[in-house]
């Protein structure tokens, strides 16, 4: 009797001591790893928003994802794509590879008056963690103080404000310590500690007293640390080793674009940079 190939794979996985049920999806994906050209075509698929989103994610996490042709695509989708999940993916991609001025393109989507989709707003405030542009501070302050906003969005806005040593930021972060959600309190306290070098935890009274006193003595931000945006890391799935063109999974935490000096490369450059020959065309199989 001939045993199907997929069954053989499952048997081998069991023999190796792997968790078959957990990895079944990954085993299936192993046989259909998208090429760079496929990812580019998916990103351009105007009939399937799921494909567009998947293509954007794959392109933006590839070593060539910061090529200008793709950055232009991210900008276009941030402004014009009607699907909220595609827009959120484009915002994340642009924040990863864009310039400080792109923060001005992303920032409006953090407002509830502009987008009624929480995923888009959350992507926007997370994106502003990676791009330094002082003109977006009012948007971050408003998001953090908005009592009607989702806690994930408010917390991410607090994290983004940790790169701006300004009075309006410190006062907003101290006010947010009074939020009902513990996660928001923790994010605000962490940003205050980053900005000032002090650590009063989530004690709103202690922070208020210290800040008002510090303002009378000089610069309350003189002891602040170096802001680096937070990154997400996970274990590499074994099939991903076959997709050689994808980025490494452990992205370093860097200073935002606009704060990095000339000796610091962008995130995608740190992962081997743009490979010789440039990015693959959409027709590359």
Provide structural commentary.
This protein is mainly α and 285 residues long. It has a domain of 32 residues. It has 14 helices and no strands. The protein starts with a helix and ends in a 15-residue tail after the last helix. The N terminus is likely disordered.
Distinctive features:
51% helix; disordered N terminus; mainly alpha; 14 helices; elongated; 285 residues
Could you say which overall geometry the principal axes of the C-alpha atoms support? elongated
Count of alpha and pi helical runs: 14
Determine the N-to-C terminus distance: 36 Å
What is the subunit arrangement here?
Answer: single chain
Largest beta sheet, briefly? none
How are the secondary structure elements laid out?
Blueprint: H1 5-15, H2 20-30, H3 36-43, H4 49-60, H5 68-80, H6 84-97, H7 103-106, H8 118-127, H9 137-145, H10 151-160, H11 167-176, H12 182-196, H13 204-217, H14 267-270
Helix pairs in contact: 3-4, 4-6, 5-6, 6-8, 8-10, 9-10, 9-11, 10-12, 11-12, 11-13
Write a brief structural summary:
It contains 14 helices and no strands.
């Amino acid at each position: 009797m001939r045993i199907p190939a997929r069954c053989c794979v499952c048997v081998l996985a069991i023999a190796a001591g792997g968790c078959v049920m957990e990895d079944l999806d990954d085993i299936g994906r192993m046989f259909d790893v998208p090429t760079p050209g496929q990812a580019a075509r998916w990103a351009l698929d105007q009939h399937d928003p799921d494909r567009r989103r998947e293509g954007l994610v794959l392109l933006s996490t590839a070593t060539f994802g910061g090529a200008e042709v793709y950055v232009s695509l991210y900008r276009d989708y941030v402004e014009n794509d009607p699907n909220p999940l595609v827009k959120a993916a484009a915002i994340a991609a642009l924040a990863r590879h864009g310039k400080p001025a792109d923060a001005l393109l992303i920032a409006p989507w953090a407002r509830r008056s502009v987008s009624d989709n929480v995923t888009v707003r959350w992507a926007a405030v997370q994106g502003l963690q990676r791009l330094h542009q002082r003109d977006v501070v009012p948007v971050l302050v408003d998001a953090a103080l908005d009592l009607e906003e989702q806690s994930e969005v408010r917390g991410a806005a607090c994290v983004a404000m940790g790169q701006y040593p300004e009075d309006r930021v410190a006062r907003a972060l101290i006010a947010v310590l009074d939020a009902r959600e513990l996660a928001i309190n923790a994010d605000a306290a962490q940003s205050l500690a980053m900005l000032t070098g002090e650590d009063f935890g989530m004690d709103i009274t202690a922070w208020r007293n210290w800040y008002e006193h510090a303002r009378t003595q000089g610069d309350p931000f003189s002891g602040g640390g170096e802001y680096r945006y937070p990154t997400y890391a996970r274990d590499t799935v074994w099939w991903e080793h076959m997709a050689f063109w994808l980025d490494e999974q452990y992205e370093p935490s860097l200073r935002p674009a606009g704060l990095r000096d000339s000796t610091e490369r962008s995130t995608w450059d740190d992962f081997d940079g743009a490979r010789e020959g440039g990015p693959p065309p959409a027709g590359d199989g």
